[in-house]
Design a protein that fits this description.
The structure is a single chain. The chain has about 425 residues and is of the alpha+beta class. The chain has 2 domains: about 260 residues, no CATH class; about 90 residues, no CATH class. The chain contains 14 helices and 12 strands. It has an 8-stranded mixed β-sheet, with helices on both faces. Strands 4-9 form a two-stranded antiparallel sheet. The protein has a two-stranded antiparallel sheet with strand order 5-8. Helix 3 crosses helix 9 and helix 5 packs antiparallel against helix 9. The longest helix is centred in the C-terminal third of the chain and has 26 residues. It is elongated and about 90 Å long. The termini are far apart. The C terminus is likely disordered.
Length: about 425
């Protein structure tokens, strides 16, 4: 018997046929559609942190992978970006860029590029907040999920599918439960009384580029040094009473969805495929497309010769020109601790004192070589009133090699003495 079965498997007989949909569409089974409701965890988590700033996150809607947001312990801080951040005045240093600053400076600087921005805070109320834009992609995804929930609710009534109706109601209410438990706010610290000291902060990116930020001490504290802890509406002690019922609701929803009619299951599958694609796109878009940063005004300063450099040494020099000092270079660990760099920094400190700041002519077209976003490029070019220059046109790269060769004989002598003593 086993030989006959093996023969039939190897050589299909005259009664062999391909299985399609026996009995028509009514026998099509899409039990796997329930799994579509729990896919897309990574994209949902990445978009939910911003989306939960808006009350639209409370809307009853379809939400892929809602279980990924049923936290037992929620994140307490926002994501950070790898960079070396140093304050010139007080010497503070950290090896990452906080999320708020990363949002405000969400643009790419090419290798060895240098950019200088002056930040001012508008006159906002005491409880000024940073929140999401109404046109943010994460908000549009929330509205899309709500619209699809309404469509499936109506379709369930039209087709008389009670199981689909139950799944629609349960999954929509689950998203509201998730929205309430993850809702948080980000409150900017209120203004301090009295005068504020100007501060300059250097951001060195891993690709060898620099961002010089000039602001008063209060803004620098908000952007770079203030803890960006999340102020949740629901306390952590109340998470378990919310999370446990949410898990049960999700299980019941998947069971009801698996027993819906084929017409509604096709609709559910299409809705979740569309929603997962929308969440993925929203997660891939720049952070600045989601945040409302209207609480800050940004102007840009330029440097003669453009802000793009041909070498890392030239990039460090242009950052020194913008700051007017070399003190931050060691604090930022921007250069190695060698005698050649010490000599170069001494020369750079002497030459930077001759820098000049001139008003930019409205007809001058300097080539900045560092673009932000196409939507804001024109506004930023018009908002660059100052240009820094060095009258003697000091060559930083050539000066470093001169310092290296100047110290080279002394290095050889020290090595020969050590060899003799050995």
């Amino acid at each position: 018997m086993s030989n006959i079965s093996a023969s039939m498997l190897a050589y299909p007989g005259p009664h062999w046929r391909m299985h399609w949909l026996d009995g028509g569409l009514a026998n099509l089974r899409l039990d796997v559609v329930g799994f579509l409701a729990i896919l897309g965890e990574d994209a949902v988590r990445r978009t939910s942190r911003l989306a939960s700033l808006s009350k639209t996150f409370w809307l009853p809607r379809l939400l892929p992978a809602p279980h990924s947001l049923l936290y037992v312990q929620r994140p307490e801080r926002l994501d950070t970006v790898k960079a070396d951040v140093t304050a010139v005045l007080n010497g503070s240093h950290r090896d990452y860029l906080p999320h708020i600053a990363a949002v405000l400076f969400d643009f790419e600087i090419p290798p060895y590029g240098v950019r200088c921005l002056r930040i001012q805070r508008k006159d906002d109320p005491k409880d000024a907040k940073m929140t999401t834009k109404w046109t943010a992609p994460v908000i549009l995804v929330n509205l899309l999920g709500c619209g699809l929930s309404v469509v499936l609710f109506v379709a369930s009534l039209v087709y008389g599918d009670g199981m689909s109706l139950i799944a629609t109601v349960l999954l929509s209410l689950l998203s509201t439960l998730v929205g309430i438990t993850n809702s948080w706010s980000l409150r900017l610290p209120s203004r301090r009384q009295g005068p504020s000291i100007d501060e300059t902060v250097i951001v060195r990116w891993p690709n060898g580029s620099f961002l010089v930020v000039k602001a008063d001490e209060e803004i620098a504290r908000i952007l770079f040094w203030e803890p960006d802890t999340l102020d949740y509406m629901v306390r952590s002690s109340a998470l378990i009473p919310f999370s446990m019922p949410g898990t049960v609701v999700l299980m019941l929803s998947v069971i009801a969805l698996a027993n819906a009619t084929i017409e509604l299951q096709i609709g559910w599958a299409s809705a979740y495929v569309l929603l997962n694609a929308a969440h993925w796109v929203a997660a891939a878009l720049p952070r600045s497309w989601n945040w409302d940063t209207s609480a800050f005004d940004i102007d840009e300063e330029m440097v003669m010769g453009g802000t793009q450099s041909s070498s890392y040494t030239a990039a460090v020099w242009k950052a020194v020109v913008f700051t007017g000092s070399t003190v931050w270079v060691r604090l930022n660990q921007a250069v190695p601790k060698t005698a050649a760099w010490d000599l170069w920094l001494a020369k750079a400190e002497a030459h930077v004192k001759t820098r000049e700041k001139t008003a930019r002519s409205t007809h001058t077209d300097l080539e900045p070589a560092i673009l932000r976003r196409a939507t804001t490029w024109r506004r930023e070019r018009q908002a660059s009133p100052w240009v820094w220059s060095i009258p003697n046109e000091w060559d930083p790269t050539r000066s470093w090699w001169e310092a290296f060769h100047e110290l080279r004989p002394a290095v050889k002598t020290d090595v020969s003495i050590e060899a003799t003593q050995a």
